[in-house]
Give the backbone structure.
Amino acid sequence: MKPTYRAALLVALHLSALYPLALVIWDYHTGGLSANPIEDITRRTGHTAIVLLTVSLAATPARRLTGWSLFIRLRRPLGLYSFFYASIHLMIFIGLDFGFDWELIWLEWPKKRFIVAGLAAYVILLSLAITSPKLMVARLGAAWKKLHRMVYPASIFAAAHFVWLVKGDKTRPMVYAAVIAALLLVRLIPVTAKGRGS
């Protein structure tokens, strides 16, 4: 892929990843949020986080299918954007839903499995975000790759969080769970010589 196309694709990635946040800010200032704005923002940031996480998981299969190594380069910013939205999602939940009442949070979180799954996913994403800089890659060496394979259980926890969170029609979360499961299963397929290094 030519440098011009690579640069254009990276710009498109950043714009696409920031668009949901810009839309939330716009809707907030123009009255475009739902009757329950806190729930609306929490839902939208959580949804964006799992979308970006799912797309990041698709980077390796896309690399295998096309041979374009650029997809691997997109995996890191996609993962960081997913962590960014997950952080907003969590802060709204803690700050606006619970009012930073840590005692109440401590009492409530073990009772709700969707909170446990979501917190597990977030802790893993946090560790991956902290170790994403090139300096950390150099320091950790071979252990870095092993650590970043934790994105797989993080995605499972995120899917479980979504499924358990939604009440009523679970079609959308089940679709995401199925897509994530498929992307993880792809990794069990033997890699050909052409696809090695992905």
About this structure: Residues 3-186 form one domain. Residues 3-30 form the longest helix (28 residues). The chain has a mean pLDDT of 88. The chain is about 80% helix and 0% strand.
